[in-house]
Amino acid sequence: MFKQLGRCQLRRTSTVLSLLLVWTVMATSCKEESSPATRFGLVIHGGAGTITKEKMTEEMEAAYREALTGALILGHQTLAKGGSAVKTVELVIRRLEDSPLFNAAKGAVFTSTGTNELDASIMDGKTLNAGAVAAVKHIKNPITAARLVMEESPHVLLIGDGAEEFAREHDVEFVAPEYFYTDRRWKSYVKRKEKEVKRAAASTDEETGREVDGDEKYGTVGVAALDGSGNLAAGTSTGGTTFKRFGRVGDSPIIGAGTYADNRTCAVSGTGTGEYFIRFAIAHHISALMAYEGKSVQEACDIVIHEKLTGLGGDGGVIAIDWQGNIAFSFNTDGMYRGHVKGDGVAVVKIYGD
Ligand code: ASP
User: Fold this and answer.
1) Is pTM, for the whole model, over 0.85?
2) I need a surface site. Which of 110, 134, 198, 221 has the fewest CB within 10 A?
3) Minimum-distance ligand 1 atom for the alpha carbon of 103
């Protein structure tokens, strides 16, 4: 009897022990899979447009790949060291703003009056706080000014002289307007101006006048990041569209249009014809489709780009990362400079429609 009880207890004890072991193994592997330290990631874009292999030289392609890869590595290092999503977005965008390749800060396009007017925004998905600047002309890195608006002011968007005065008070780096001159963007401006003059003389319809090479038209930069603490952030910086009317503001500094981040859904940055992105609240629309309709981040991006934007005749693309680290891209143009990196540190860069 005693012997029997003992055997029974032994069996029960060993069953409990094996269950505990299975639970421990499962708990450990689950923890590894979803460990915040390995789940971080970021996704970037450098503009969308008529970007095809035929129009690209080998040197240009190599330069773009190098710039995008460098930005991804910087973002990965920042996140791996425990940097926040907001910090990562700012640092990576600053890197892209300093490159003459992109239509943001240093490589900005020119307005119809031959000036550069810069827009940028940033949003913190944890607090839903946001900051932006528009139509600034002397700020070397508009994304830093946008972050200061978010963190050091009660406002979301400051424009023109007011934005510059605020930035000056916060020791942001200023440059002379000539800093933003690049041969490539000036040539685009001159080409476009000639077209406009011809168009006015021949009084052709307005549509013809809007035809611009995709490469001349876009080049905005954007970053969406998920950090090791599970916080999301997004940011976008641009010179706008070539030959835009001075004073025109596009979607990039408009929260909900060009930029959006919410820890409960995703972080998004867009690029394309800003007027359409504003009308459709594109970036927020993606987050809303996830929140209200349970769409995945890729489904939400595709619906917004291929149904909504295309349906209205707009063009461009978006990048996004969700709260679980899933990455998404969607665009209806020939190509979009883009890339992503996750916790494993493998940087992936793409340019064309693949
Ligand atoms: N979305 C920007 C704007 O309309 C342009 C771009 O993405 O290239 O200002």
Assistant:
1) yes
2) 198
3) 8
